[in-house]
Design goal:
The chain contains 6 helices and no strands. By secondary structure, the chain is mainly α. The protein starts with a helix and ends in a 7-residue tail after the last helix.
Length: 190
Amino acid sequence: MQKTKAEKKSSKNVTVKKMELVTRRNAPLATPTDLKANATQDIAGALNGILADIFALHLKTKNFHWHMSGPHFRDYHLMLDEQASQLYAMTDPIAERIRKIGGSTLRSIGHISRVQRILDNDAQYVEPLDMLAELREDSKTLAGRLREAHDVCNEHRDIATASLIEVWIDETERRTWFLFESSRQGSLGH
């Protein structure tokens, strides 16, 4: 019994679909996107740098939260815990955005340490106001890096990532402001 043209075509389509399925299964995280490969690479690189910085800043904030002391302990302790939570909340949306555009994210603590630009603080003791000042400067640095990443997104017309970054800049500026106001010394004699 000989196959008809329709049966041959149907069989060929099934074979092609099976081959496509095997190819997709073997493709290494090939997320479809309309962004060009260089755009994905540039944006993912910028976002991975920010992601590493946020993990570093999150841990530093928690470190200072755990080691806070002094007369303003409760206020500073609570503020730093809130800020650490805000930082951690940024990590998943950033990593998922990297994946949505076809990039790969950070994979380990070692990977974070190789990419992070915000410095760790392993000192045994840091004065409370020095903690706030260091976190404030790190937050200002993070805001600047977010702006740089925003420029990369604009260059490649990645409106979705740029829009997310705008919110993260605002949140980062808010943390910077709180750290600044919390560390101000009242003027004596006024």
